[in-house]
């Protein structure tokens, strides 16, 4: 007899958004500015809000929650909360309170060049590279926890263990080329596969990932 449910551990890509200000209008503008860099990627993205940098006694949770809802982001949890009254309010709204672990701060590098950008260094965990209006070419390895984002195509000529997001501006014609595909996540124009979704026949091999009729597809590179 099949059991009704199964509990399994898994890994998902979540953004942690640290609040440094509490004014709703300022938060909204800052979040929208970030979303507009890659609207397809951030559409309905699940996020965790970290409030450790602000005075949680001054937080109007209803206002903060409405700001995030209005931007299209989906709140799945709150971390850094020490105020018991606020914790209860958040929990009553159906949102989890998360304990803070060791969260690495992403070292972000934005590239404003309308041509291919080539990186010859290993991309290490916690690093994020964004090629705006450009292709991104990495000639070496990409570590677990590292992230590549490009409005154009992404090429990885090494072991790919991190996350690769091509067509971040919504361009469905973009592709990902990889000589050793072992990625945490791959995405084109907001359509994504986590590691478990990558077909096993292509895992650890050279591959080309592209969209076909709005569905992610994969072929082996010759």
Element order, helices and strands?
Answer: EHHEHEHEEEEEEEEEEEEE
Cα separation of the termini: 45 Å
Largest sheet: 6 strands, mixed
Largest sheet, spatial ordering of strands = 5-7-9-11-13-14
Overall tally of domains = 2
CATH secondary-structure class of the largest domain = Mainly Beta
SSE-based structural type: alpha/beta
Task: Categorize the overall geometry.
Answer: globular
The CATH topology name of the largest domain reads Pectate Lyase C-like
Function: Cell division inhibitor that blocks the formation of polar Z ring septums. Rapidly oscillates between the poles of the cell to destabilize FtsZ filaments that have formed before they mature into polar Z rings. Prevents FtsZ polymerization.
Family: Belongs to the MinC family.
Pfam family, one: MinC_N
Protein name: Probable septum site-determining protein MinC
Textual characterization of the structure:
The longest helix is centred in the first third of the chain and has 12 residues, at 24-35. The protein has helices at 24-35, 39-42, 61-71, 84-92; strands at residues 15-18, 46-50, 74-79, 96-98, 107-112, 117-119, 127-132, 136-138, 147-150, 154-160, 163-166, 176-181, 185-188, 191-194, 207-212, 215-220. α1 packs parallel to α3 (61-71). The model is unreliable at 102-107 (pLDDT under 50). β15 and β16 form a beta hairpin. It has two domains: 15-98, Alpha-Beta Plaits, CATH 3.30.70.260; 107-220, Pectate Lyase C-like (3 Solenoid). Helix content is 16%, strand content 35%. The chain contains four helices and 16 strands. The protein is an alpha/beta fold and 222 residues long. Strands 5-7-9-11-13-14 form a six-stranded mixed sheet, with no helix packed on it. The protein has a six-stranded mixed sheet with strand order 6-8-10-12-15-16, with no helix packed on it. It is globular.
């Amino acid at each position: 007899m099949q059991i009704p449910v199964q509990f399994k551990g898994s890994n998902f890509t979540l953004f942690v958004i640290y609040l440094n200000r509490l004014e709703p209008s300022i938060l909204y503008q800052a979040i929208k500015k970030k979303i507009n860099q890659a609207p397809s990627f951030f559409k309905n993205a699940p996020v965790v809000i970290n409030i450790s940098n602000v005075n949680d006694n001054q937080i109007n949770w209803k206002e903060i929650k409405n700001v995030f809802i209005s931007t299209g982001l989906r709140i799945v949890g709150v971390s850094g909360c020490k105020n018991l009254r606020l914790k209860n309010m958040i929990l009553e709204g159906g949102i989890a309170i998360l304990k803070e672990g060791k969260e690495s701060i992403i070292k972000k590098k934005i590239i404003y060049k309308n041509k291919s950008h080539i990186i010859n260094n290993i991309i290490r965990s916690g690093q994020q590279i964004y090629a705006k209006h450009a292709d991104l070419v990495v000639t070496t390895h990409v570590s677990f926890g590292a992230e590549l984002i490009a409005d154009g195509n992404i090429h990885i000529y090494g072991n790919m263990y991190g996350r690769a997001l091509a067509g971040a501006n919504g361009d469905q014609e973009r592709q990902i080329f990889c000589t050793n595909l072992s990625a945490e996540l791959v995405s084109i124009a907001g359509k994504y596969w986590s590691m478990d979704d990558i077909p096993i026949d292509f895992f650890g091999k050279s591959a080309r990932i592209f969209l076909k009729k709005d569905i992610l597809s994969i072929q082996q590179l010759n």
